Amino acid sequence: MKQSSLSSKFSGVSIKVINSLLPVLLAFFIGGIIIAAIGENPLSAYGTMIGKQLFTAKGLGNTLHYASPLILTGLAIAITFKANIYNMGVEGQMLLGAFFSGIVGSSLSTGNAIVDKLMCFAVGAICGMLFALIPALLKAFFHVDEMVVTLTFNYAMAKVLEYLASGPFRDAGAGYVCTPAIANSATFSRLGKSRLTLFFFIALAIFLVMWFVMKRTKLGYQVTAIGKNAEFAEATGMRVRCKIIILMLISGALAGIAGSGYMMSEQFRYTLDFSGSPGLGWDGMLIALLGRHSPVGILVASLFYSVLKTGADTINTYTSVPKEIVAVIQSLMILFLAVQFLNERFGLIERFKKLRAEKKEA
Amino acid sequence: MSIIRTVDLTKKFDEFVANDHINLSVEPQEIKCIVGENGAGKSTLMNMLYGTLIPTSGSILIDEQPVKFKSPIDAMNHGIGMVHQHFKLVPSLTVYENILLGTEITKKGLPLIDSGEEIRRVQGIIDEYHFQLKPTDRVEDLSVGQCQQVEILKMLYRNVRILILDEPSAVLTPQEVDRLIENLKDLRKNGKTIIVITHKLREVMELSDSVTVIRQGKVIGTVMTKDTNEQELAQMMVGRDVVLTVSNEGGMPSSDEVAYRVEDLHTINAHGAEVVSGVSFEVKKGEVFGIAGVEGNGQSELVKLLTGLMTTTKGRVYLEGRDITNLWPDQLRKAGIGIIPEDRYGQGLCQSMSIPDNCIAGYWYDKEVCQYGVLKKKSILQRAREYIQKYDIRVASEQGYVSELSGGNAQKIIIAREFESHPRLIIACQPTRGVDVGSIEFIHKQLLRFRNEGYSVLLISSELSEIMSLSDRVAVMYKGKIIGEVDPKTISTSEIGLLMAGATSQRNEVPV
Predict the structure, then answer these.
(1) Where does the pLDDT of residue A4 fall: very low under 50, low under 70, confident under 90, or very high at 90 and above?
(2) Arithmetic mean of pLDDT over chain B
C-alpha cells in the first residue's frame, strides 16, 4: 500500500513535469526541422544558444536580468489563475506602473538612490493595483467577467499611455515619442559586465515571499480553496468577494513592480515599444501556463523563457539561422500550450477517443 | 422468460470497478427494487440499462435478444424509459406540452401544432393509468409529486414497456409516496415492468415483487419481497447487523434554558421572492430540535441564513443571549456554532484538497493551527491524525485527497471537524444524506452524545424517520413558515405528513 501510493505520487509529479515539457519539446522539434531546412544543424544551433545564455558569465547575467520582470508578471498571473480568476490585464497594469514610475523617477527625483527607487516601486505598485481594482470591483460586486474586462483594458491602456507619452509627458528634446529619462539616482546600475542589476535579486526576494504566501499562509490556503471550490470557500467563511479583490490587488502590484523594475533597470524611459513584442505581461501568461501556476515552475519557466528571448541575438550572431526562429518557437509553444490547456479543460483527446471507439463499433 | 437480463455486466472507471459481473434478471410485469448503499453501483447499473453509460464488458438482453445501447434513444427504442431523480421539465409550459415535447402533433399538412388533439391524447393516458392531473395545467404550478407524474406520463406516452425510476420518493411527502406506490402498482396491472432504485426499505417492502441487493458493485442476492424483511435487507446491504434507528431515549431531560433563539426571520432569494417568512423558534440546552418539511419549502434558505451564507431582511438570531444575526460562517464557528452543511462536497469539503487541509477549514482562528496568518503544518497534520483515529475514518493515506474517500468517511471528516471545536450548538443539515447505513448509525450516535452532554442540536433533514427518531421536538416548515410544532413521540407519520403538505390540523392551529 505504502509502496504503491509512493510510486503513484512519484509518477504524478513526473507526469506534471512531462506535461509541462511536452509543448516545449514539440516546439523545439518543429523549430529544429525549420533550422535543418535552412541548412544548419539544429542541435548545434540550439546548443550554441543555450550554452551562451546559461554557461557564460555574461550570458547568464543577461538571462537573469531579462527573467526578472518575467518572474513578477508570471507570478501576477499565476496567483489569480490559482483562484480561478483570470487577470489577463497584467500587461496594461505593468505598462501603467512603468509609465508613472518613469515620470516620477524623472521629475520628482530627490537625488537619494534608495528613496528614489523605493518611490518609483511604490508608484508602480500603486498604479498597477488601482488599475486592477476596477475589474476586481466589477467582478466582486456585479459579476462582470474579469477576463473580458482585463483583456480589453490592456489595449485601452496602451492607447492612453501612447497619448500621454506623445502629448503631455513627451520629452521635447528627443527625436522620437518617449518620456524624459529617469534620474541617475533612480536607475539600477549594472553588476559586472552583463546587464544584471539588483532588480533581479529584488524580484527573487518577492518570488520567495510569494512562494511562502502561497504554500504556508492562510491566504495561500484560501486562494487554493477558492480556485478549487468556491462554494466551499464561501461556506467556511473565506469571504470570497473580499479575497478576489485582495488577489487582484496583489496581482496588480506585482505587475506594477515588474514595470517599474524594468523601467529602472533596462529602459529608463517610456517608449511606445517599452515592453517589446509580445509584451512582458503576455510573456507572463505563457510562463504561468508553462510553470503550471506553481511558484517553482514559474521561476524555471521564466529563466527558460529569458534564455529564448536573449538567445535570439546569439543565434543570429553565431549561426546563419535568422533570429526570427525564436519567435517561431515561441508561437509554437503558445499553440501547443493552448491545445494542452483546452484538452485539460474540455477533454478533447478523451472525446476524440470515444468518437473513434463508437465508429469502430458501428 | 426475462424481459430484461444482464449477463456479467461490468463497468470500470479506470481502476475502479463500479459494477462487477452483474447478473440481473427482471420478469415481465414485475416491480423490481434495486437496493444498496450510496456508491454501491445502483446508478451505474441503471445508466447502462438506459444507455447513458457504455458497459466495459458483459451484455444486456431484452426479450433474450442481446442489445447494445449507445444513447438513451436506443434504450427508448427498445421500450425502456427512465425517470430521473431531478426532473427534466419546462416549468413555463403546460403538462401536455411537456409530455409531447419533441414529438408534437401537427395539423394535417400545416406546420401548426394541433393542441386539441394533443390535449385529448394526454387526457387519454392520464385516464388510462388513473393519474390526477389536468393536461392544461402549467408545470410551475404543480407539486413535486405531480411533476413526477408528468415525468412518468412522458415515458408512458412514448410507449415504454420498462420503466426505471431513480430514487423516486426522495422528494415526496409520505402521502405522495403512497400515491406513487399506487400509481406504480396500477402501471404493473397494465402490463408495464418497473425497476425502482431506492435505499428506503419501507417502500421496498410495500412496493416490490422482488429485490436485488447490490453492495460494492456486486449482486449480493435477489429475494422475493414476501420472503424477506427490512432487517434482513439492511443486513444484506451493509454486510453486518445494523441498528436501523438510533433511539434518543436515555438522555437527560431537556432543560428550560434557551441556548439558541431565532426571532421572526425573513429573507428573499435572488429572484426577490420571500422564501423564509417569519420563522421563529427556540432550541433549549440539551435538546435536539428538528425541522421537517418537504424539500423546497424554505429549509435550505433557512439553513443558509443560520450558517452565514445568506443575509436576513428582517429578524434576529441569538446564541446564548448574544446577537449573531448575519455573521460570516467563520465568525459563527468562532461564536460556538458547529455547521454540518447540506451539500457535503459543495459546502462542507473541498475534494481536491488534502484531508489535513479540510480538517481546519473554517477554524483558522484557532491559534493552534494558524497564527499571524501562517499555517502550522505540523500541528495541522497532527490534528488530522487525531480525527482519523478518534472518528475511525478509513483513509488510504493521511495526506490523501478527500476525493479518495467514500461518502460516509468524507462526512465523518466534517463531523470530526465540527464536533472537535467544542461548539455550543450544532446545526446539522441532512447529516446522513448519501451516507452508508453504518455511518448513519455512527453520526446519529454522535449527535445524541453531544445532546446528552448538555449542548444543543438543530437538525434539518428531509429524511422523516431521522427527524422523528432523533428529535425532542419537531417543527414543520411549509412555504417558508413554521406551520406547526409536534412531539415526535406521540404524533403519527400520517399526521406529520399532512402538516408537511401544508394542512394544519386542528390541534396545531396557531390561534390568531
Answers:
(1) very low
(2) 83
Contact B350 A225 (CB under 8 A): yes
- pLDDT per residue as tens digits for the range B436-463: 777 888 888 889 888 888 889 999 987 7
Suggest the residue from A2, A232, A361 to mutate for an interface test with chain B (most B CBs closer than 10 A): A232
In this structure, are residues A100 and A124 in contact, taking their beta carbons and an 8 Å threshold? yes
Residues of B in contact with A231 (CB under 8 A): 343, 346-347
So what's the architecture of B4-238 in CATH?
3-Layer(aba) Sandwich (3.40)
Q: For A247-300, how does the pLDDT look when each residue is reduced to its tens digit (9 = 90+)?
A: 999 999 999 999 999 999 988 889 888 888 788 999 998 899 888 888 888 999
- Judged by a CB distance cut-off of 8 A, whether residue A1 touches chain B is yes
- pLDDT-derived band of residue A338, with 50, 70 and 90 as boundaries? confident
Looking at the domain that runs over B258-508, which CATH code has it been given?
Answer: 3.40.50.300
Question: Is B4-238's fold the same as B258-508's?
Answer: yes
Sheet holding B210-215, edge to edge: B80-83, B162-166, B193-198, B31-35, B210-215, B218-224
**CATH 1.10.60, domain A38-321, yes or no:** no
Q: In degrees rounded to 5, what are phi and psi of residue B151?
A: -60, -45
Least CB-CB distance to B349: which of A1, A218, A232? Answer: A232
Inter-chain touch B373–A5, beta carbons under 8 Å? no
- 3-state class (DSSP) for residue B375: strand
* Pairwise CA distance, residues A28 & A43, whole Å: 10
Cell numbers that stand for B400 in this block: 490523501
Query: Which cell is A329 given?
Result: 518557437
Scanning every residue of chain A, which has its alpha carbon at the shortest distance from the alpha carbon of B414?
A236
Separation CA B416–CA B363 (nearest Å): 12
Question: What residues contact residue B230 under an 8 Å CB cut-off, 6+ apart?
Answer: B201, B202, B204, B205, B244
**Cβ contact (<8 Å) for B364 and A1?**
no
pLDDT tier at B505 (50, 70, 90 boundaries)?
very low
Neighbours of B164 (CB within 10 A): 26
Cell 483513509 appears where? B395
Task: Spell out which residues of chain A touch residue B357, defining contact as CB-CB under 8 Å.
Answer: 221, 225
pLDDT band at A11 (very low <50, low <70, confident <90, very high): low
Asked whether residue B509 carries a pLDDT value surpassing 50, the answer given is: no
Coil, strand or helix at A275: coil
Could you tell me how far CA B149 lies from the centroid of its own chain? 19
A74 to chain B, minimum CA–CA distance in Å? 24
Question: How confident is the model over A199-223, as pLDDT tens digits?
Answer: 999 999 999 999 999 888 999 999 9
User: From B361, which residue of chain A is nearest by alpha-carbon distance?
Assistant: A236
Composition of chain B by helix, strand, coil, percent to 5: 35, 25, 40
Strand partners, B194: B31, B163
B422 phi and psi, to 5 degrees?
A: 50, 65
**Cα A15 from Cα A37, distance rounded (Å):** 32
Domain ranges of chain A: 38-321, 323-362
0.85 surpassed by complex ipTM: no
CA distances from B121 to B117, B125, B153, B191 (A): 6, 7, 11, 19
Whole-Å CA distances, A166 to A94, A103, A172, A272, A275: 19, 13, 9, 9, 17
Contact check, Cβ <8 Å, B350/A361 = no
What are the sequence ranges of the domains in chain B?
4-238, 258-508
Q: How far apart are the first and last CA of chain A?
A: 41
- Expressed in percent and rounded to 5, the helix, strand and coil fractions of chain A are 80, 0, 20
Those of residues 212-251 in A touching chain B at CB distance below 8 A are: 216-219, 221, 224-225, 228-229, 231-239
